[in-house]
Amino acid sequence: MISYAPLWETMKKRGATTYILQVKGEISSSTIRRLKANESVSTNTLETLCKILNCTLEDLVTYLPDTEPSSEV
After folding, report:
1. Are the beta carbons of 50 and 71 closer than 8 angstroms?
2. What is the pTM of this model?
3. By CB atoms within 10 Å of each CB, which of 38, 48, 56, 57 scores lowest?
4. For 25-32, what is the mean pLDDT?
5. Phi, psi for residue 5 in degrees, rounded to 5
6. 3-state secondary structure at position 63
């Protein structure tokens, strides 16, 4: 699973709000809702967030492996 927990910490460190994301980056409220729910967003959105927050991808997302074994091979 992809988690956007690092994004919220990065925003806190930089004093950024979701309002700033919407105004400076034209990030829609529906995209912010998707980020909060750890749902998928486009790579363009991630690039825009990196530009707004002057950070790297690692400052926005982290991968959390599934705890259940996969049946896929």
Report:
1. no
2. 0.83
3. 56
4. 95
5. -55, -40
6. strand
